[in-house]
Each structure stands twice: as structure tokens, then as C-alpha cells.
Amino acid sequence: DQPRSRGLGDVYKRQAPDGVNLSIDAPEPLFIDESALRRLCHAVLSNCIAYRRQDALLVIQAKAQWKSADTVLLTFTDNGEGVPQDQRMAVLAPLKRLRSQGISPGSGMGLAICTRIAEYYGGSLLLQASSSGGAVVIIELRLTRPDIDASLTV
């Protein structure tokens, strides 16, 4: 059963809630299970929204780019609150959150699930600070690039 080809924009439909400016730069389809790509996008974007600054329009940039013939980087950058450096590894573990339960939505499982999906695809998830003080989530996945192996097209 071959994974379906989906672009990042196809999955998130370029829709964002009010007060969020979401831009997607992902021209090529990705050969990945659609539900896995949806979970990745939903979890990361939900965290961007949950940890947004209240004094500014939330700006999220999502980008997919090929690092090599078999590795794609999904990068999500926001201008939200960011993740303190000393907590970046901790929030990737199950049930770990930046805030106490009840202050913001979520269970503390989103980034842990993203990490597991990235690892399943032979990759990783990394958190960094954006130039605006927000967060950068970099997800590396080992996938087949469509123009390298055309036999995988669906």
C-alpha cells in the first residue's frame, strides 16, 4: 500500500482561524501517509495558536523543502511566545506542557506524537527560537522525492 501524495497546502487547505496569518510554501507533493501529515500539521499549528502572544497578530510560516534526495524538512515558524531553551527537549515528551493544565488547551501529547511520527519516517523534530522570539519547529522526514523515483506516484 503506497502512501498518498499530498502537499502541505493540500492538507491544511490554507485555512487559519481569525487573527492568524498562515502562509504555506510547499510546491511539491510529499509521499507520506495523509493522516500522518495531518497529525503533524494539526499538532504544530495548534501549539502555535495555543502559545500565541496576545498583543500581536499571530504569523505562522509553514514550509516544506528537500534537504537531499531522500530527506524533506517541514519548517513551521511563528511569532508567538516561543519555547524557553531549557524546556525544548522536555516538551517533546508525552504529557509535558509549558503551562499548567487548564490555562491553554491541549494534553501535552501533540509534539510527542510529532516526534514519534518523525522517528517512524527516519527523521527527527527540533525546536529553536525564531528571530521574532517565537518558535521554529523543524521536522525532518526521510521520504522519496517524486522526481527521483517516479515509480511511487499514485
Distance between the termini: 10 Å
Total of DSSP H or I helical runs spanning 4+ residues: 3
Helix content: 10-25%
Radius of gyration: 15 Å
Residue runs with pLDDT of under 50 for 5 or more positions: 149-154
User: What is the string of SSEs from the N terminus onward?
Assistant: EHEEHEEHEE
- Which sequence of strands runs across the widest sheet? 2-4-5-7-6
Described by the principal axes of the CA atoms, the overall outline is: globular
Q: Give a quick account of the main beta sheet: strands, pairing sense, barrel closure.
A: 5 strands, mixed
Quantity of strands, as a count? 7
Question: What is the average per-residue confidence, as pLDDT, rounded to a whole number?
Answer: 78
- Give the amount of beta strand, in percent: 25-35%
Class by helix and strand content?
alpha+beta
What does this structure look like?
This protein has 154 residues and is an alpha+beta fold. It is 21% helix and 28% strand. The longest helix is centred in the first third of the chain and has 17 residues, at 34-50.
Q: What would the keywords be for this entry?
A:
7 strands; alpha+beta; disordered C terminus; 5-stranded mixed sheet; two-stranded antiparallel sheet; 3 helices; 154 residues; 28% strand; single chain; globular
